[in-house]
Amino acid sequence: MRILGITLPENRRMEFALTAIYGIGRSRAKHILQVTKVDGSIKPKDLTVEQENTIRKLVESYKIEGDLKREVAGNIKRLKDIKTYRGSRHARHLPARGQRTKTNSRTVRGNVRKTMGSGRRKEEKK
Fold this sequence. Notes:
Blueprint: E1 2-3, E2 6-7, H1 14-17, H2 26-36, H3 49-61, H4 65-81, H5 85-91, H6 106-109
Antiparallel strand pairs: 1-2
Helix pairs in contact: 4-5
């Protein structure tokens, strides 16, 4: 099953297969299935054509994939342009929501910086 150019995983339950689309998480996937009256445990390969079409129609009504990515990028660009603190954190690839940076923050900064130990070498036995 394809929605907006994204192929849903065939062997996953619909509840989880819908999360392959950017902008649809677990709660929104459950809501979509609840509104369209489709069982969440059914797999995409077992759906009927009419079920596919109702799901596709509802999913396309949300802001997902390219539109959502464009909006998020625009929001971050706006923060950088007006020179807010959050914008400067985004520009420097640092955490923007108050997390500590002495340790952790590998996700935003990348896994490049590895921790050293104590900096001392162990003494050899004589």
